[in-house]
Design a protein that fits this description.
heteropentamer; A mainly alpha (215); B alpha/beta (278); C mainly alpha (296); D alpha/beta (251); A: mainly alpha; MetI-like fold; B: alpha/beta; five-stranded mixed sheet; 13 strands; globular; binds adenosine-5'-triphosphate; binds magnesium ion; cell membrane (chain A); ArtM/GltK/GlnP/TcyL/YhdX-like (chain A); transmembrane helix (chain A); transmembrane (chain A); membrane (chain A)
Amino acid sequence: MQFFVDNFPLLREAFLKTLSLSVLAGLLALVLGTVLAAFRVSPITPLRGLATFYVETFRNTPLTVVFFFIIFGLPQIDFAVGFFTGSVLAVGLYTAAFVCEAVRSGINAVSPGQAEAARAIGLTFGQSLREVVLPQAFRTVVPPLGNVLIAMVKNTSIAAGFAVTELTASLQRLSNANGGDILLVLAAVVAGYMLITLPAAYVVGRVERRVAILR
Amino acid sequence: GCSSDAGNQAEDAADNSAAVETDAEFEAGTTMAELNEAGAITIGTKYDQPGFGLLDPSGTPEGFDVEIGKIIAAKLGIPEDGITFVETVSANREPFIQNGQADIVVATYTINDKRKEVVDFAGPYYEAGQDIMVAAGNPLGIAGPEDLAGKNVCSVEGSTPAENIRTNYPEATLTLFDVYSKCADALTNGQVDAVTTDNVILTGLVAGNPEGFELVGNPFTEEPYGIGLAKGDQEFRDFINDTLEESFEDGSWADAWDATAGAISGTEAPEPPAVDRY
Amino acid sequence: MSAPVLFDLPGPRARARIRVATVIGALLVVAIVAFVLVRLGRNGQLDPQRWSVLFDPNSGVPQALWQALLRTLRVAAVGMVFATIFGLLLAVGRLSDHRVVRVAVTTVIEFFRAIPLLVVIFALYFVLPSFGIRLSTYAALTIGLVLYNMAVLAEIFRAGILSVDRGQSEAAYGIGLRKAQVMRLVLLPQAVRRMLPVLVAQLVVLLKDSSLGFIIGYFELLRQARSLVEFFTPRFGNEYTFQLYVAAGLIYIIVNVLLSQLAKYIERRSRRSPKTAATHAVDLTDLPSATGQTSI
Amino acid sequence: MTDRPTGEPLVRLSGVNKWFGDLHVLQDIDLTIDRGEVVVVIGPSGSGKSTLCRAINRLEAIQDGEITIDGTRLPDEGKELARLRSDVGMVFQSFNLFAHKTVLQNVTLGPTTVRKQPKAEAERRARELLDRVGVGAQADKVPAQLSGGQQQRVAIARALAMDPKVMLFDEPTSALDPEMINEVLEVMTALAHDGMTMVVVTHEMGFARRAANRVVFMDAGRIVESATPETFFTHPTSDRAKDFLSKILNH
Amino acid sequence: MTDRPTGEPLVRLSGVNKWFGDLHVLQDIDLTIDRGEVVVVIGPSGSGKSTLCRAINRLEAIQDGEITIDGTRLPDEGKELARLRSDVGMVFQSFNLFAHKTVLQNVTLGPTTVRKQPKAEAERRARELLDRVGVGAQADKVPAQLSGGQQQRVAIARALAMDPKVMLFDEPTSALDPEMINEVLEVMTALAHDGMTMVVVTHEMGFARRAANRVVFMDAGRIVESATPETFFTHPTSDRAKDFLSKILNH
Ligand SMILES: Nc1ncnc2c1ncn2[C@@H]1O[C@H](COP(=O)(O)OP(=O)(O)OP(=O)(O)O)[C@@H](O)[C@H]1O
Ligand SMILES: Nc1ncnc2c1ncn2[C@@H]1O[C@H](COP(=O)(O)OP(=O)(O)OP(=O)(O)O)[C@@H](O)[C@H]1O
Ligand SMILES: [Mg+2]
Ligand SMILES: [Mg+2]
């Protein structure tokens, strides 16, 4: 118990870092991922190519490497960023590739018949997108998107190696300092992650059930 | 067309090794006898400390710590190919000794009382001190740790220097990576104002980029590097201490320095420290 | 060929607009690339000497990266084999009729899906020794990858098994097969074939995740690149830093793209081969529940 | 049945050709459909019936030939295409009701967004149409809560809400349970008797006999026969048609 | 038609009840099927026909009552259930051929794994059966390469390979294109004439008239009528049956 009392401030700080890193990176990933998905389904070849290239690159690169490029590579083109900002960028840019795929699969999961029926009653492209395709895509996209975002929370742990004192960094620090309590340290950190991932999974489940369309 | 500075230098690299004691004799039952009998020893060292313990591209560890390890092995009558180096990081040096995963640990291992509770130390074989590295020309005029207040200073998560700054100079902003090479990059890029750790490590970093970095040269702690071994093995500890003192005497200690840390930093071997037989 | 889901078939005006946008888009892409190259050049990062280290055998770099790649592949391959085996067992376990088995298996799966792999690896290497279990870095990394990925794969396989049309198992029961036979002869073969693309996607994830070995000092590709950087830094400063990390990144991308291509090739071949045409590998899009399971 | 005096056919296809890759799915199709005419299209699976229907609505682009509706050449894209499409009602085999909207919203979506009708008016009219096809009571349910026959009748109401000049039906009853086929066919028969111009792809020969002015038989992308139901069912001229009828009629 | 002298019916359902949640889908069903008898089950959608069929094979468990096959009570699980199931052939609306196996493997899987027949013998017999249903030439293709009608005939051969005592057909033709319905019905008619005991859920009234010994009409989970095809089609007694027949026959 004493261990928790002693280290509570550090653990709380670390937990809040993980949380804020997750929230900011998640927002970035959602926005960028949606834009990329729009690019990927657009008829404009370079945009499609760009988005495909982006997705393939980020999907096939370890997040740690992405971190390297953001933190130490960007300065090579004269854009130095702070470490927290850099971590948000790294996690956000990386996750955007997966968000893009989730959103795209959501759009593709809308049965073609729905869009055709919309066109057949005379809706224009924009109208059929707004009235028929997107509302349905959003519903299918909730579960995979939720999973991507939960996976992202776990991925923020890599920021520990890049000057962000989040939960995993605190695990490293405390286990160096409290060799004997290492199991407690581990339990505290695991609990910290679960405090984010489990409720998130629950919320995703709820939203999923709420927006589910009867088919 | 495939030549690079790195390749050219590798070609000139020299080779040195301590002479193996072929007829070493030890009292039966001692650790020395066991190791001598087995003809093998496992030495824990760091793989990411320039000048002290680092893997070369072929995967062979090199550095001052490694050479010290070799001197001890040689004294035990163990040839170089009988030595197994394992990587010990800061967090697992004590467990490795306690669990017998390493016979000795030579890993920029600062002797302190807390660690003495679980392991024993031979040595010290080197006296380092925490120092500060800044950008060349020292634009912020940092002369010592007091000047770090309000500055962004880089070190490694979980290390003693970081802990020291955190407790004694709380006004400094700490940026903590997992290795010093990242700190050096961050300093180059202007992402941090200074890097702090043991001077020997900083010397190595400055050597690589003399136009970019400079050492403040004002060590503000004492970091005696010891050799970690199982607690209570007094005979073994005495043996290592003897070996160290012998190497101080016969110049092999200085040779080891010149071939490793000295070669990188271009500094002469210092006075050897006094062994502490506590 | 077939009508696009989202867009109407473009007419002449739409085609003209698309052409204009294509040119603008292409210019934009070229501009971004040019900008990056110019800035890199100005910072001296394009100096051929700095890149030649990657190909100069005298420097030991190509050999070191190659060896590290082999280590990475070894961890990934061994990890994948065991993760697949355990994943299959867990998936079957989670579909068991016995509540106890189901609950136990579900707990294991959910636990490993809830915590970061980095923490799992860390715990295996640094925490287990205090219980007298000592693992090498190789074992700790591999076991970590197996534990984490078996949980993910179990969910993928479960989705795959559930995605096989119910009629298939009913028909199998109908000719008198028993539960284990139905699973082995009818459901699993079809589920695995369907799940192949997702499986390979997960292999890519696993391969990438092997880079997390850095936290315990396993010398996989990324840790090796960092080690080379550390080796060269005292001698040449950061002359090769950028290049070595780029090299590591590119190797990951190349290997993973090759893997994905292999998956596409297998999938195409199996589509052509009538044998599997019917159980064609499902596009991820057909299986939102399965996409949801892959980790990233 | 029409008050317009013009002799111009409502739908005219001339020299229409379409390929899917190498597959020539529509081959030199010439077909005119007059105002108020009900044309039933039959033929074996894969003969191009659906493609023909979809081409008239430009859900598929044709590569060669011309399609005009009420004298206007089918526009290639954009607003004009959308406007023209709203004049052509389409009913699909799989209903394609908007799954996330209620029955009423399904019917009012077109009128309010395309025709900019006020919501209240669109709803009033929608309820009228739903009553007419016999599903007025279901207005506030979502499609998944309806039987197939009910869904298809909603789909017809949805198409009718746009006041189309012509209605296309692509196998409207083949996804339905047998007892529900009739309720849909009855609605269609009533429409035909009210003078709606209709193109109906179907295997329901009873409907063809009862409601069609003309039967068009397709095979392998071509129109092989075109005759009154009387003539077609009693004296098919081509061998393919005879063979097809023998297969489809004797059970 | 049977060489066994016993008077015991082959399939007997007595007092069978089944609920899906609150929905009472089978209500006090009593039904006996004699050796060699062909029983056609008809009724509106949702009346419980499929559930009845599936209950006889215990693909659905019943909550009340008893089902015996050849005098044996339907076991609840395990080896005995599997053995009994192999005596009851089942043909589904959607064919359900094993998609990853060839036609021949589909037919031999049961005999080799359940009956432990040697592979060669199982294949010889399988080819015989495939010839009998007219798809012998397709033995080495996979299901996806076959037309619906061919797939359904393979499914029949697969069921026959187990030498079942009784065959259950659940709407075997309703997923087929109209031109293919007949080829399947012909195979079924031939089976019936060869003396196979059959329970057939179908909307094909032609088949019922031609091949059935008895027609069972279900509505809302109950057996409402049970009569010879003659009697049932000409003089249905219940209103529901009259209504149903009127819906289904007049198109
Ligand atoms: N989007 C498409 N891409 C490629 N081929 C297609 C496409 N749509 C249809 N076809 C092919 O075109 C041919 C005609 O198809 P179509 O759907 O018009 O036939 P149909 O007469 O409506 O058949 P059915 O009675 O089975 O509905 C078929 O061979 C079909 O496989
Ligand atoms: N697995 C199930 N869970 C819940 N309800 C079910 C299930 N299967 C069938 N039902 C319901 O049981 C009732 C009887 O279904 P069944 O499929 O036996 O009817 P059916 O006569 O075969 O109809 P159809 O002609 O449409 O095939 C229906 O109301 C159906 O919705
Ligand atoms: Mg069609
Ligand atoms: Mg049924």
